What does this fold into?
Amino acid sequence: MNKGRLNMTEQTFTIIKKPQEMGLEDLLTRYKKSQLLEMGESLAVTFPKSWKKGKLIESLADKIVEQAQTIYNEVLEQVIDTLPDKEQTMYYLETVDSIKNLAPLIKKGFFFAAETNDGYVFIIPEEVIEAVDSAKGVEDSAEPAESSADDSNDEVVENVSTHQAVKSLTKWKNQLLSIYGTYSTSHLQSIWNRYYSEELSLEEIDELVSK
It folds into this structure.
């Protein structure tokens, strides 16, 4: 087996050399620039190929943290909750096969598989853990603007809110499709209702994502 990559039936992820420091940017440094660009694409983010590797790593790290707080928060929280110690950021592995089901999340930069002199380790960057935890206290960032007595102003607020809902839900839907190959309206609803005070029904979400 090529030590640099783990091959499976449907997924492939890179096994990096463990760095001295295990911050998110330190871990990303172990990837080639072409791999970092692919990681960005897996997060539905496109970076200019002309960017220097350092700038690419910095921007990619920001996107990973951002998406750990939003679309991927629920699945990341579920994974972290299954670990023996939620404060621990590194686990020694008997075999990398034990984390093959996490391949989609490793490919997106939320988790890392690294090789050491003694074997392999599974790494969760502290920034990702903090992002997942901080999302629990995120306040609604899409409160409707104060309406005036002017009916036309009310209509504008409604249109902006609908546009934002379509944009957010469609983005989440596409990212779920990229992970699982499918999505559920109830999953989109749980994500939406966690971060927005104006809750949406399953029927409303179905209508919005079909626009």
The longest strand covers residues 12-17. The chain has two domains: 5-136, 149-209. The radius of gyration is 19 Å.
